[in-house]
Specification:
This protein is α/β, with parallel strands linked by helices. Helix content is about 35%, strand content about 20%. Among the domains are: about 1-40, no CATH class; about 75-225, no CATH class.
Amino acid sequence: MGIFYSIINFRSYPFEDMEETASGDNCQNLCEKENEDVISELRDDILCYMLSFLPTKSAVATCILSTRWRNLWKSVTILDIFDDISGCHKNPSTYKERKMNFVNFMDRLFIHRNYPSILKFRLILAQSYDFSCVNAWMSHLSRWISSSAIMGNVEELIFSINFPVRLPEKLYCCEKLVTLKLHGHIRFDNLKSVCFPSLKALHLEHLRMLTNTAIKMLLSGSPALEELELEMEGRDSRQSVHVCSLSLKRLIIRFICIFVTYDNSYRKKLTIDTPNLEFLKLVDFASEELSMQRADSLLQADLCFGYQTGVFNVGIEEYANMVVQFYRQISGVKTLSLSNFNIQTLLGAAVSKFPCLGNLPTFRNLIHLEVRVGDAYVWILPEILQCSSNLEVFVLILDEDAYDWNWCAPHSVPQCLSSCLQVMEYKVFQGESGETEMIEYFLRNALVLKKMNITYLDDLKTSKVDVLKRLSTCPKGSDACQIVLIPEHERSFEVANMRKASFFSESLNY
C-alpha cells in the first residue's frame, strides 16, 4: 500500500507550493496531511481497481486494515491465484500445513466472494490436491461462468494445473473471452462444443492430454482467432496435428525434441492451413511430415526443425525433399530465420548429392535473413544467398562451440551481394582465421554494403586491434561500408534491458 500513498501524496502537493513548507506551522500541517488516510476516502471502484494489480491472496489480506476495507476484495474483477508452496516440500509438516492453508483459502474465496463479474482470472496449481476440493472449486467456478455477468464480461482466462482435471463445460462458451491460456494436465475428453466468438489469442502449452480432435474443435469454435501458441511433447501419442484457421495471423508451434524410436506403424504429421497467416515460428523435432498450405500472406518465418537419426521412420532423402518443398511453400516471406538444424539438413542433402538441393526456391520477397550455423556448415551459405536475390540484411550467428573452420570462397558471387545487400551482422566472432577470411569475402563482394557489425566474444583468440587492422586493409567492394566491432557483453546487456522492459510492460498491461 505504501506506493499508492506515495503517489497520491506526491500529486496532492504541486511544486509551486514547496516554498510554503519552510515555516514550522506549514511543516506541522504537512505532517498532519501525510498521516491522513487518503486512500480509504476514495470510491470503492477506484480501490478495487488498485487491488486488482495485487495477487488475490494479498488483496484479500487488506481486509484487516479497517472496516472500510473489510469487503472490498470481494468486488475485485481480476483474480490472480497461485499456490506458492513449492519450496516447502523439504519439510513435510510445513508443506502439509501450507497446503491445507491454501485449500482453506480457496474454499473461503469461492464461498464468500459476492461479486460474480470477472474480467480476468488466472489459476496456477503446481501441486496436487484432493479431487473433492478441486471439484468443489470447479463447481463454484462453473457457477460464476454460468452467471450472466461473467458470460458478458470475462476477457482473459489462464489455467495452469499440474494434475488431471476437467474444466467446466461452460468455460468453452464465453462470448467475450479474448485470451485463453491452458497449461498442464487439463483433460479434453468431455469437450462437446466450443463457442468463442471474440477469442483473439489461444495458448495451448504442455497439455499432455490434448488431441488433434480437441485442437480442431477449439479452432473451429474461434472464428476471430488471430494468435495461436501450440506446445506439445514429442513423445505424445498423436499421429497428426492439423492447424486450420481462416483468421489466424500469428502461429507459434513447439514440438519438443525426443530421443525415443517412434511406433513404425504411422508417421507423425503437421499440416498448417492458415491462408491469412503473417508470422510463423516453428520448432518441430517430432513431425516426420510437414506441410504449409496457402501461405500467400506469410511475411515472417522463424524455423527450427531437423532430421532425427534413429528416431524417425522416414528416410533422410525423403525428409530433405519434404524440407525443400516446405521452403517452396513459404517462399514469399520477407523475413526468414533458419536454425543450424535447418542448415544441417540442407548440408546433408548436398553431401549426399540429393537432387532436392538444386530445387531450392527463389525467395523473391526476402529482404531480411538470419542464419544460425556451425563452423562446418558455413560453406553452404552461398547456396542459400543465391536464392535470395533481393536481400538487404543478412544476420549470421555462429555456434559458440565452433572450433574447426572450413571456409572456402565460392567461385561465383550471389546476386544479392553485388546489387542490394546493405547490412550484415556477424555474431559470436571468435577470432578464427577462417572467420576473418569469410568476413573479407563479404567485404570484397558486397558492392552496396553500408555496415558490417561484428559481435565478438570476450575471450577473442586474436586482439581487437589486429582484427580491425586486417579488416581495414582488406579491399572493399563498397567505399561507404562501416565496420563496427561490438563486445558480446554489451550486446547481452542490451538484450537483458530489452527483456526487462518487455516484462514490465507485460506486467503493467496485465
